[in-house]
Amino acid sequence: MKRTVLVVDDNDINRLNLKLLLKDSYQVLEAGDLDGADTMLSGNRVDLVVLDLALPPEPDNPEIGLGYLAKLRKESPDTPVVVITGHDERAIALRAQKLGAQDFFGKPFDPDEVKATIDRSMEARWQAVREQEMQRALETQVNKDLLGESEQMQELKALVEQVAGAPSTALIRGETGTGKELIARRLHAASPRAKQPFIAINCAAMSAELLESELFGYEKGAFAGAGERKLGWFERASGGTLFLDEVAGLPLQVQGKLLRVLESGEFSRLGGDAIIISDVRLICSTREDLKAKVEDGSFRDDFYYRIHVVEIEVPPLRDHIEDLPLLAEAILIRKAALCGKRIEPFSDEMLEQLGRYSWPGNVRELENVIERAVVLAAGDRVDAIPSLAGPQPAADDQDPLAQWLQQLPETGIRAEKAVAYFERRLVETALERNHHIKARAGRWLGFGDRAKDKMRYLCDKYDIEVQENP
Ligand SMILES: Nc1ncnc2c1ncn2[C@@H]1O[C@H](COP(=O)(O)OP(=O)(O)OP(=O)(O)O)[C@@H](O)[C@H]1O
Ligand SMILES: [Mg+2]
């Protein structure tokens, strides 16, 4: 879509000339007086205003135009204004610039100069927008808000704020991508420890030995390869928060050691005797059912009770899908800014399509999908997200037989009809998934050597037309 320029000039010839000059690059709106300009501005998205300062009712009095310029700057500070001054009106032009005009040009017009001035002003404006949004995106990247206005999210946010102030250990539970780490960071940021370090450790990725040496640190010579004393996370996070991500992956022996440190508030570096007092708040997260792991013996029960003093359960996105438009918009703005692109907000249809998907990867998946769409977007809008083409059936209507039965009257169902229906669907699906090559579709269906013949037969039977590939 083209950017929009509003030309405000009472002279019809001037307006026409400007329109002819600009129409290839911009969508041009016109107004002959200030009321007309107000109407245009309230009814359209306007990216730049070209304002003649000599306007009715007193074309000789530039104060009217200057007054309107001041009003525009105040009411829509993001819309640049380029003013048209009379011949040799340097003083007026300078005043206009003081009032915030982006640039100016004088009458009579030099078309090339006018076009260049407007192009430059538009570009400067969008450059500024991009920089601002980039800045905002970068800021929110580190200090992102937990978004969502649904009842679940409001409760969650209230709980997070409440728990943040307490010194207790917290366990955050939820599916992948639901925002567990975001919540852990929020718990830290809203706590009295906010100015001290927050250290996140992924427990699933490390061996017991490595974890121990990283958590508690070591003295020089504690083991082969320990060339220097190294401080562990417990020491480095002192006064702050230690986030044990994927705590289910923590080896039993490390759980035991951690438990002792939590109980006593003390530890020593590996290979050292010095007792170090630790003041660290522990926050853990898990996607797994820790209770079940306790029951089957792969997680220590005493450690489990120690870390789930407060439990925060994060809902999957599909359970608060009413938050999707808000999330999608916020993510779109951030991703577009990071890509340096200008993308229009999602259409209602688009949001509806996104809302029908089941989002097994939750908000992270939503972020990835939108990022991909933004990167691939050719113009300034995202019209379709191909990977989500079909609606995802909810768990309980996944059984196609049940669906089919629903469409039929209760009595008189004929078995052949049902079988034919499914056979036909099977054949069609096989063809779709195999580039409409009969032999290949037949093999996909397990017809073996006679795949092609059988598919021919079935296609005839159901009148399925297949364009034969060469
Ligand atoms: N409610 C939310 N509001 C805004 N952003 C969110 C929200 N929930 C999740 N996100 C974003 O989604 C992404 C994934 O979140 P996060 O890393 O916290 O998930 P996680 O639960 O730790 O996932 P995993 O279990 O896979 O590690 C992050 O970029 C995060 O900022
Ligand atoms: Mg995580």
**Relative strand content:** 5-15%
| CATH topology descriptor of the largest domain | Rossmann fold
Which range best describes the helical content: under 10%, 10-25%, 25-40%, 40-55%, 55-70% or over 70%?
40-55%
CATH superfamily of the largest domain: P-loop containing nucleotide triphosphate hydrolases
Order of adjacent strands in the largest pleated sheet:
2-1-3-4-5
The largest sheet, given as strand count, sense and whether it forms a barrel, is:
5 strands, parallel
List the uncertain runs. Answer: 389-397
Number of domains: 4
Oligomer: single chain
Average pLDDT figure? 86
Q: What value does the Rg take, in angstroms?
A: 33 Å
Report the structural category.
alpha/beta
CATH architecture of the largest domain: 3-Layer(aba) Sandwich
Ligands present: adenosine-5'-triphosphate, magnesium ion
Shape: flat
- The first-to-last residue Cα distance is 41 Å
What topology does this entry show?
Elements lengths: L3 E5 L3 H11 L4 E5 L2 H10 L4 E5 L9 H14 L5 E5 L4 H9 L4 E4 L4 H32 L8 H14 L5 E4 L6 H10 L8 E5 L5 H9 E2 L11 E2 L1 H4 L4 E5 L6 H13 L1 E2 L8 E2 L3 E6 L3 H6 L5 H7 L2 E4 L10 H16 L8 H9 L5 H15 L23 H7 L8 H19 L4 H7 L6 H11 L9
Parallel strand pairs: 1-2, 1-3, 3-4, 4-5, 6-13, 6-14, 7-10, 10-13
Antiparallel strand pairs: 8-9, 11-12
Bound molecules: adenosine-5'-triphosphate and magnesium ion.
How would you characterize this protein structure?
- The chain is of the alpha/beta class.
- Helices cover 47% and strands 12% of the residues.
- The protein has helices spanning 12-22, 34-43, 62-75, 90-98, 111-142, 151-164, 180-189, 208-216, 233-236, 252-264, 290-295, 301-307, 324-339, 348-356, 362-376, 400-406, 415-433, 438-444, 451-461; strands at residues 4-8, 27-31, 48-52, 81-85, 103-106, 170-173, 198-202, 217-218, 230-231, 241-245, 266-267, 276-277, 281-286, 310-313.
- The chain has a five-stranded parallel β-sheet, sandwiched between helices. Strands 7-10-13-6-14 form a five-stranded parallel β-sheet.
- It is flat and about 90 Å long.
- Residues 180-181, 245 line the site of magnesium ion.
- Magnesium ion binds at residues 180-181, 245.
